[in-house]
Amino acid sequence: MVQFWQQLTYYAFPRSEDNLIRYTIEDNHPLITAGLSEKTIDYLLRLVGVPGINLPIYLTALTHRSVVHDPATPSIIESNQRLEFLGDSVLALLISDYLFKRFPENAEGKLSSNRAKIVNRKSLAGFARSIGLGDHLLIGDSADEHKIRNSESALADAFESLIGAIYLDRGIQAASDFISRHIIEHVNFTTIVAAEHNYKSRLIEYTQSHHLPPPVYSVMTESGAEHEKTFTIGVTCTGHFLGKGTALRKKDAEQLAAKEAMERIETDDMEWN
Questions:
Q1: How many alpha carbons fall within 13 Å on the CB side of residue 154?
Q2: What is the average per-residue pLDDT within 25-30?
Q3: Candidates 152, 160, 252, 254; catalytic one
Q4: pTM to 2 decimal places
Q5: Is 232 helix (H, G, I), strand (E, B) or coil?
Q6: Active site annotation includes 269
Q7: Which segments of the chain belong to CATH 3.30.160.20?
């Protein structure tokens, strides 16, 4: 492994005709000591599709939070959660831009609904599986590797983190190109857009159509280890408690809370005054 990384250090990748960029990564870099394989490095280079990428950013994008909390890897202090935050925003912007231009006849509510269907956990995990992202996740030794490597939340997080890494390293156009290749041109994209609205989208559409403020989601309880917490989230509107949901991801718990809310709204005559 060390020899391979030394080769990367001295190998020059052309960024333009006038200048070169070189990798300079120490042999004791924490991501190297985590046991990364040449296969994963090659995967990243091929996936991004350009030479001269900033490898540490992409490797952080693959680092599940269980690694940070694992005593076996004390030198790794950052998981992909910050990159996920950034990638989530970049993805939402670029998908919004695409939908706005692709469906000029759609109103704001429909555009919001379609975007929510594309960027939800299930869809993103599907896109991640289509590029084999789970095979390259870095997972802590003390965590349930099989469970995490195949979970929707871990795959979706890593996919968004990868988008954040591409944005930081190559800019907005490269992130847009990646999203076009692996989401918009994906065989399931049209099916996803045409699918039934998810519950959060349906709840938003309901509040908009009834001239109500948007629903508010809040954490009611959280429990469990730092890297495997369980969240219970409630949703309210105009002070009315509508439902709650429990899941390992806040976004998944919100979806379950919205599901309970819609079931209540559709079976009861809600009075909002």
A1: 28
A2: 47
A3: 160
A4: 0.63
A5: strand
A6: no
A7: 199-267
* One-letter-per-residue 3-state SS of 176-227: HHHHHHHHHCCCCHHHHHHCCCCHHHHHHHHHHHCCCCCCEEEEEEEECCHH
One of 70, 88, 157, 252 is an active-site residue; which one? 88
Tell the CATH topology of 199-267.
Answer: Double Stranded RNA Binding Domain (3.30.160)
Least confident piece of the model among 11-25, 46-60, 168-182? 11-25
Residue ranges, comma separated, of all CATH 1.10.1520.10 domains in the chain are 2-194
Tell me, yes or no, if 88 is annotated catalytic.
yes
Is a pLDDT exceeding 60 seen at residue 128? yes
| Domain 2-194 in CATH 1.10.1520.10 | yes
Give residue 13's pLDDT.
Answer: 31
Of residues 157 and 31, more confidently modeled: 157
Look at 113-117, 130-134, 157-161, 251-255 and tell me which has the smallest mean pLDDT: 113-117
